[in-house]
Design goal:
With about 300 residues, the chain is an alpha/beta fold. The protein has three domains: about 90 residues, Winged helix-like DNA-binding domain superfamily/Winged helix DNA-binding domain (Arc Repressor Mutant, subunit A, Orthogonal Bundle), CATH 1.10.10; about 100 residues, Periplasmic binding protein-like II (D-Maltodextrin-Binding Protein, domain 2); about 100 residues, D-Maltodextrin-Binding Protein, domain 2, CATH 3.40.190. The strands form three sheets. The chain has a five-stranded mixed beta sheet, sandwiched between helices. The longest helix has 22 residues. The chain starts with 10 loop residues before the first helix and ends in a 5-residue tail after the last helix. The C terminus is likely disordered.
């Protein structure tokens, strides 16, 4: 292997190349890397000269890679991962003085129910650090991790890439939320007869609860499907509507005293909330600090000891 070839390389150009391979769009790459479009175009021209290949061919609004670009990417991406790990070992992380930006992905039930105590702790420990939260769900998390849009994700995770790591944070107990107070929880018959609000990011009108009900020969009536949990308090207020949601989100919504939380009237499977990240940042001091704080303030073993 001729190491002298490395003298021709500019790491910044390699980062731009990787971003172009992932995004296939100059504007998106510029936004992702916080650079101007002329800078990205100039970098692409230098890359074409370096590799003596067009690398990307414009097809509509996308930049499709050439065969040589695909081959380069297969070798370059793991090399950049290794280089990132090596560089992370050259410095410690001081949360008190750091001005880093962390990009975290989480589903909106987690954002509503578990983010506030985490953010309170992070703001005290790392007052200059910036946290960018992006909405994710299990079908998007792999792509967002691979593209670098997030470095850690918190959601019900499935189908992760081979180089991903997973940490169980807590078990999810499905719960009910209602606006009408009662001394007794809903019976199964009442649950099935009441109108339901379903939270679905893909505009479905059936979800986990419908699958569980079908297994015992029952069904419910979903009369409203909305894309996010944060709208539930206003939608349920003053109505007979009920909603099914994770226990930590229901607890947060019921804390205001206008809504009431209760368990499901039938046995349900236990779901898992996980934290996931890619293996190449596993030893990064800053990312390890962030993951430790997420586990401390979102993990079920530690949640009961937090101040209310």
């Amino acid at each position: 292997m001729n190491r002298n070839e490395l003298r021709k390389a500019d790491i910044n150009l390699m980062v731009v190349f990787e971003a172009l391979m992932l995004e296939r769009n100059v504007t998106k790459v510029a936004n992702k890397l916080f650079l101007g479009q002329p800078t990205i175009s100039s970098a692409l021209n230098r890359l074409r000269t370096m590799f003596n290949d067009p690398l990307f061919i414009r097809v509509g609004h996308r930049m499709e890679p050439t065969a040589r670009a695909e081959e380069i990417f297969r070798h370059l991406s793991p090399a950049l991962d290794s280089l990132s790990v090596a560089l992370s070992l050259t410095h410690d992380f001081d949360p008190g003085s750091s001005t880093m930006t962390f990009r975290i992905g989480m589903s909106d039930d987690v954002e509503y129910g578990l983010l506030p105590p985490l953010l309170h702790a992070l703001r005290q420990e790392a007052p200059k650090v910036v946290f960018v939260v992006q909405n994710v769900d299990h079908w998007r998390i792999s792509d967002l991790l691979a593209s670098g849009d997030i470095t850690v994700g918190i959601t019900q995770s499935r189908g992760l890439p081979a180089n991903a790591k997973r940490k169980l944070l807590r078990h999810i107990q499905p719960s009910l939320l209602r606006a009408d107070a009662s001394d007794a929880p809903l019976t199964l018959d009442e649950y099935c007869s009441r109108p339901h609000v379903l939270v679905s990011h893909i505009a479905n009108v059936s979800g986990y609860a419908d699958e569980w009900l079908a297994q015992i020969g029952r069904s419910r009536q979903v009369v409203l499907s909305v894309p996010q949990y944060s709208s539930l308090p206003a939608l349920l207020a003053g109505t007979d509507l009920i909603a099914s949601l994770p226990d930590y989100t229901a607890e947060a919504m019921a804390a205001g005293g206008q809504l009431f939380m209760e368990p499901f009237p039938f046995k349900t499977p236990t779901l898992e909330l996980c934290m996931v990240w890619l293996s190449h940042i596993d030893s990064d001091p800053a990312e390890r600090w962030l993951r430790s704080r997420i586990e401390a303030f979102m993990g079920e073993r530690n949640l009961l000891s937090l101040p209310q």
